[in-house]
Design goal:
- The chain has a single domain (2-183), classed as 3-Layer(aba) Sandwich (Rossmann fold).
- The protein has helices at residues 2-5, 17-30, 54-57, 76-85, 114-117, 135-144; strands at 9-13, 40-44, 64-67, 88-92, 95-97, 103-106, 121-127, 131-132, 152-155, 160-164, 167-170, 177-183.
- The chain has 6 helices and 12 strands.
- The protein is globular, with a radius of gyration of 16 Å.
- 24% of the residues lie in helices and 28% in strands.
Length: 193
């Protein structure tokens, strides 16, 4: 898969219990655990993932999870602070492009993209139905669904740069480890898509 060629990790799952297992496997792979500290997770995949039981995927005692759910936007300073201290940010996606392996994120009004920028690891949840043929198709989808969001981000693997003396550095401008879990079947709340 193109995403893996770009340095990202990839998991595929059917909805249900298998999805919680895939999220757990992804989190274990992406987060470097320190024996003396429980890793923190900023859980913010959006309302489309409300049916996913994150407590089963990231149980207390193994993970310290801060969920950002449908209770309205979190104050920007608080969100930035939680994201900066998290070992893993979990987000949903707007769409993914098959031609480049890139995944697009879109912010909600009043919210930034901190969970995908500040933690050293980032996990993206994506439905197979959200994969479009090209980047241009993805941008058309984004425009047709209410116009362009306040902020959008297109991710094509881990953050990296070769601007520093021509050497490749990973994780300089964002997460050094990124993964995507693709759900291949319909979720209970999406009308069979």
């Amino acid at each position: 898969m193109r995403w893996e060629a770009l340095g990202g990790h990839y998991w595929e799952s059917e909805p249900g219990a298998g999805l919680a297992q895939a999220v757990a496997a992804a989190a274990d792979r992406l987060v470097e655990r320190a024996p003396e500290r429980m890793p923190s997770v900023l859980w913010w995949p959006g309302p489309a993932w409300a049916a996913l039981a994150w407590k089963a995927a990231l149980p207390a005692g193994r993970w310290a999870v801060t969920p950002v759910t449908g209770g309205g936007p979190m104050e920007p300073g608080a969100l930035r602070s939680v994201a900066a201290s998290a070992a893993l940010g979990v987000t949903g996606a707007a769409w993914a492009a098959a031609d480049t392996g890139s995944v697009a994120l879109a912010s909600e009004p009043g919210q930034g993209l901190w969970p995908s920028l500040l933690p050293p690891s980032h996990l993206i949840l994506l439905r197979a139905a959200q994969v479009v043929p090209t980047l241009a198709d993805g941008l058309r989808v984004m425009r047709s669904e209410g116009g362009m969001p306040p902020m959008a981000k297109i991710i094509s693997g881990p953050s990296s740069t070769a601007d520093i003396e021509g050497q490749l550095w990973v994780g300089v401008h964002g997460p050094g480890r990124v993964g995507v879990v693709v759900v291949t079947g319909p979720m209970p709340d999406d009308g069979g898509r």
